[in-house]
Amino acid sequence: MKEDIFRNIGASNHSRLTREENDYYATDPIAGYLLLEVEPDLTNIWECACGAGHLAKVFESFRKLSKATDLIDRGYGDVEDFLLNKEPYNNGDIVTNPPYKYAQQFVEHALSKVDVGRKVCMFLKVLFLEGKARKELFNKYPPKTVYISSSRINCAKNGDFDTYTSSAIAYAWFIWEKGYCGETIIKWTN
Q1: How many Å apart are CA 184 and CA 177, to the nearest integer?
Q2: pTM of the prediction?
Q3: Nearest to residue 103, comparing CAs of 189, 179, 176, 156?
Q4: Rounded-to-integer distance, Cα 132 and Cα 114, Å
Q5: What architecture (CATH level 2) is domain 17-189?
Q6: Nearest 5°: phi and psi at 184?
Q7: Which of 52, 108, 124, 129 is an S-S bond match for 74, by CB 3.0 to 4.6 Å?
Q8: Using CA atoms, how far apart are residues 38 and 57, in angstroms rounded to an integer?
Q9: What is the pLDDT of residue 152?
Q10: pLDDT tens figures, 150-161
Q11: How far is CA 107 from the centre of its chain?
Q12: Per-residue three-class SS string for 44-107
């Protein structure tokens, strides 16, 4: 019974099934469209965990994509370990659904790379809001806005949307603007 509760809320250490080795859970492209509705000024986007391009292709269709990379060659973008990239990312925004086990590192690294005033947008479980280590992250770098999805958006293991047709996990777009020091605003999408 207790195990079922943890599985239902998406606790990866209680999953009945083996997690994908590189934590590849592709994002339904609808999440990209929703992000561009609420953050239309995003430009020169670097999708740094692009997988097979589910989000990046949306940004590309709006001519907002500058760069797409992933640790693994999945047939889209360039192969690169984002967390090892030391170059600054000037005049652009970083947007992705990071591997959840490295989500905090992705946020911190992305914020270290972008210019002041540029955005870091991460598609994360709503549960990312909790935890002592993340509380320190939020105190140091408060997100400007968190857009909670009113409808469940699917993230499919290995990009297999035919098998994984729905989600029990609540997701949100967490938006950081480098240099922002105000209160975090919570909004809802879709």
Answers
A1: 11
A2: 0.87
A3: 176
A4: 25
A5: 3-Layer(aba) Sandwich (3.40)
A6: -80, 135
A7: 52
A8: 18
A9: 87
A10: 888 877 676 666
A11: 9
A12: CEEECCCCCCCCHHHHHHCCCEEEEEECCCCCCCEECCHHHCCCCECCCCEEECCCHHHHHHHH
Rounded-to-integer distance, Cα 66 and Cα 1, Å = 47
Whether residue 148 has pLDDT greater than 80: yes
The helix (run of H) or strand (run of E) holding residue 7 is: helix 2-8
Query: Per-residue pLDDT for 85 more than 50?
Result: yes
The three-class DSSP label of residue 171 is strand
Task: Name residue 189's beta-bridge partners.
Answer: 149
Q: Which residue has the tokens 């195990």?
A: 3
- What average pLDDT does this structure show over 6-35? 67
Length of the chain equals 190
Q: For the chain, give every domain's residue range.
A: 17-189
Distance (Å) of CA 124 to CA 5, 43, 62, 103 = 20, 21, 23, 8
CA atoms within 13 A on the CB side of 80: 17
Query: Of 146, 134, 140, nearest to 184 (Cα)?
Result: 146
The 3-state DSSP class for residue 136 equals helix
Alpha carbon distance 2, 49 (integer Å): 33
